């Protein structure tokens, strides 16, 4: 293994922190060699609220992945998630010099810069500017204007920002673990790149990453994100509802959810019963299994309904021609695709990685979609020849990120 280039991805989720380590092969394919997971601590809705606890979980997951791989990593591409993230569309325009009418990379940087001028509040930090479309002298729908001739260049972008405090604390957490941050990538972006197919990403698909603390929603179209939002509701709320409804502990509610959980009544025969351990651990009670559906279905229904209402308000529903892809831990809930289909009235599928290597049984899990996407991103960075050392911490400028994204896609 010595001499191999190592790629690492790290996702600090609300419920678990996962690290993946891969080796880069000569043909720019990757071979995943280490997978490590630890229960997250000190995280609320994807945001770090206790640095040391969060750092412990990172160190534990990375050590596990390192042990499996028999290597040590000193840096990783890290996902940025959480309720502090907000995103919106913006646009900029520049005039192209008559003397040099061919569009250069510099022109593209300038129009992207113009699109974010004055739109980011001082307490927020830019995470990505994702080019959606360029308009050259009124000609719409241009994805790569480099080398084209024109006099007026407009750029439509999707901007993802995060709270400066939350981002600083993520870097502080990583400093404690002594693992450098190669790049911060918006979790849903990484996730979409890992599990959506080319047609979906091009023609318009709704991605929902339903984790423990939040449901992260994006519409991908023209190979990039055109809409995204983070809804602070996820599997934790389902577990809480069960704990309250069945008068039991959170731990027992989580166990029942994973073992018997279901959101469609017609999957269960009416006389099936299950045993619930009550809070004092001595009392046990038999309940109809259907009761779980009665408690869980309304919550998942509510989450999908809120997502749909938001999309309607934002006039985005018509952009979704390829249906809905659900991923994250809640995607493992039986019946979730049928329920989503009823609400969105579209085709729904479960999205998970489709990795073909030796650890595919561990990796092809909807709870690892984001992490696989991070490795893809690390791979793209290697492919465009970026030096890891020059990409550490916050040094990467917004414009070089945007240009890298352009290069990745064209
Ligand atoms: N088999 C299962 N059936 C139902 N729910 C499940 C199953 N497995 C995991 N979950 C739920 O999925 C959630 C965890 O999903 P995931 O690992 O994607 O979250 P996370 O990344 O830690 O959180 P977030 O993305 O919100 O920060 C938990 O609420 C868990 O109860
Ligand atoms: Mg997650």
* Order of the strands making up the biggest sheet: 3-2-1-6-11
Beta-strand proportion: 25-35%
The backbone outline, from C-alpha atoms, is globular
Number of strands: 18
CATH C-level name of the domain at 5-83 and 164-193 and 353-409: Alpha Beta
Summed up:
36% of the residues lie in helices and 30% in strands.
What's the structural blueprint in terms of helices and strands?
Blueprint: E1 5-12, E2 16-24, E3 30-39, E4 43-44, E5 47-48, H1 51-69, E6 75-80, E7 86-95, H2 105-116, E8 124-136, E9 139-142, E10 152-163, H3 164-177, E11 180-186, H4 187-195, H5 198-203, E12 205-210, E13 215-221, E14 224-231, H6 235-245, H7 250-260, E15 273-277, E16 284-288, H8 290-313, E17 324-327, H9 336-344, E18 348-350, H10 360-363, H11 369-383, H12 398-409
Parallel strand pairs: 1-6, 6-11, 12-17, 17-18
Antiparallel strand pairs: 1-2, 2-3, 4-5, 7-10, 8-9, 8-10, 12-13, 13-14, 15-16
List the main descriptive attributes of the protein structure presented here.
410 residues, alpha+beta, Nucleotidyltransferase, domain 5, Dna Ligase, domain 1, 5-stranded mixed beta sheet, 12 helices, 36% helix, disordered C terminus, binds adenosine-5'-triphosphate, binds magnesium ion
